[in-house]
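User: Predict the complex with S-adenosylmethionine.
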Amino acid sequence: MVFTLRVPKQPDGVKPPLTGELPATALQSLASKTFGLYLHVPFCAKRCGYCDFNTYTATELGGFSQSDWSAQITTELQLAKKVLGGFPTIQTIFIGGGTPSLLPAADFEKVFRNISNHFAADIEITIEANPDSVTKSSLAQYLDIGINRISFGMQSSASKVLQLLDRTHNPSAVSSAVLTAAEVGFRDISLDLIYGTPGELDQDWLDSLTTATALPINHISAYALIVEAGTKFANQVNRGEIPMPDDDIAAARYLQAEEFLNQRNFHWYEISNWGVAGAACRHNQLYWDSANWWGAGAGAHSHIGGLRWWNERHPATWAQLLTAGHSPAAGQELLSTAQQFDEQVMLGIRQRKGLPVSLLPAATDLAELQAAGWIEPSALAQGQLVLTTAGRLMADRVTAEILR
Ligand SMILES: C[S@@+](CC[C@H](N)C(=O)[O-])C[C@H]1O[C@@H](n2cnc3c(N)ncnc32)[C@H](O)[C@@H]1O
Ligand code: SF4
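Assistant: Here is the predicted structure with S-adenosylmethionine placed in the model:
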């Protein structure tokens, strides 16, 4: 298939990325940086009130069929292969959503079939799953086709919190899904948690952490509930039906999580992510290190060597473009050296490994940051800027201090 250009936003001097004309600098980075794939599955059985991810229920798909997903993703990956001049070794794949677990393993297998000769020997393949959309058989099949890491959206162990979040699962579905995943052979299991939902008590959060860590998992992502504009939840907050999540409560919950998880050998490696030794998500690491990835699927974002682009958001539009032999990209930007530096600071500061002090602008007032108790003195002595627990709560302020 010959792909033609259809990228509306073209900053001056930037060659269209998706016709096989990546800038030389971007192509060069393929040789030196890790490469991964993100595959977006834009389907959900029901939209949770707080979520603004690019996902659609059956009636919102505008004629696009879930059963066409694997063929269209395969088409986009053919485009990727052409643009990249062949795939580099694929170190990680992340199948995210939406709810990827709505699709059968056979769909992912069809996608893998054409690219598996590029897989690294120790490839990490993660799938996101809703606790109530898996069965023993579907989990066994995912593992069988090579998916070796699974992340379940637990959110909370409190029924009232799950109800307020509009989740379709009840608390017992999480234990059942995780135990079944472990039983069929998954060794890398992660849980997503949300804290600071209005009505959640300290004890509810403690119960969520207790329930999660009692399960055979090795990784936790925990995020404060964000009120995303335009969501049902934001409308309820605006109408005064639900109070706004409180920042101080969220900060207290973060500290509670840090202490609790440390005691159980889950250590932070990124502000919102904790794992036992060796369980860090390699795919997310690739984002935080500004490495290279191709995001295939409706609304997916890609980044190769400072060039970023993103696809049309609606699955029907994305698929129509691919079917017509066009690129599904909706826009792109080439990051300047200064923008790449800002990003390196913003992402680096959120990680346990931190930032080399030698990289920071000379005007950075490290003494002040240290006096505030926000950076680790021992790491500083070794030339790294690493946030303390208190500093992690102030990560945006520290970033602003460095980039001012
Ligand atoms: C896009 S979902 C995909 C996983 C799966 N669909 C699920 O919900 O279980 C990934 C995670 O994003 C998090 N998330 C989505 N919207 C959020 C929000 N407004 N605030 C905090 N976390 C959010 C949820 O914890 C969810 O588990
Ligand atoms: S949180 Fe997960 S299940 Fe809920 S709407 Fe978002 S992607 Fe779908």
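The chain has 16 helices and 14 strands.
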